[in-house]
Amino acid sequence: MTKQLTLTAADGYPVVATLYPAAGAARAQLIVASATGVPQGYYRRFAEFAAARGYRVLTLDYRGIGLSSPATLKGFDVDFLDWGRLDLAAAVDYMADTALPLLMIGHSYGGHALGLLPNQHKIAACYLFGTSAGWHGWMPPLERIKVWITWHIAGPLLTRWHGYLAWSKLGMGEDLPLSIYRQWKRWCGFPRYFFDDPRMGDIRSSYDRVRMPVMAVNALDDLWAPPASRDAFMAGYRNASVTTADIDPARAGIGAIGHMGYFRASAQPLWEDALGWLQLQTELSSATKS
Fold first, then answer.
1. pLDDT, tens digit, for every residue of 152-163?
2. Rounded to whole angstroms, what are the CA distances from 39 to 64, 208, 258, 259, 285?
3. Distance of alpha carbon 129 from its chain centroid, rounded?
4. For 8-164, where are the alpha helices, taking DSSP H only?
């Protein structure tokens, strides 16, 4: 039976998480790091799938999202980087167990958050879906136009009207704090996201500390995160053992994927691949230590 938890981040903020116990003896601990504006409930099917296969799984809502939101987002000030440095870090501390390896599945922003973690050394391996640099120039022409309209017309109008980015009005997910919208918009203006931002002077040093095995997969029909965009961002993990793969939805036989389909019920073959790869990394690590 699942259990709702409230984790306390290093700055005292309460982060609501859900724990999915493993069926039988747990083989590993697994954290699911969400995409921007996606509540943890979206990953429930995957979490149940992994738990049924022996993983003790934790999902969470970053501050300002889902169950970790304040009564109103208007005036709620949060740094985009807090989601990784504080909220996800609290989940890592909670799940770290010397008796079991700690693994991570990241979706989109979850792949950014890995490099922001102050305690990433506690994670043995990470598998990423749909992580990218977010720059419109990596996207197909029509998507570039849609994104330009979002950043320069819809976004400013919604934030001026509501005091936060009312994504839900566009059917694009959870509403976002104004500060998150402004940072996200700025970084998506650079080909390599915040790695190209002159204001982010020391950001690379945090990513240089990541040395674990990382697999980053992207669907060919993911218009927000095509492979070229993924490669631009993943180059920031200069010291990690990074492997990348492209998913052809037609060959995979699971229908359209896009940016959100990695965690729909039809994507179970992708989940099998992810868990299989993570299990292999734990076995290789154990063999090296023995």
1. 787 778 777 788
2. 10, 29, 18, 15, 32
3. 8
4. 44-52, 82, 89-95, 109-116, 141-149, 155-162
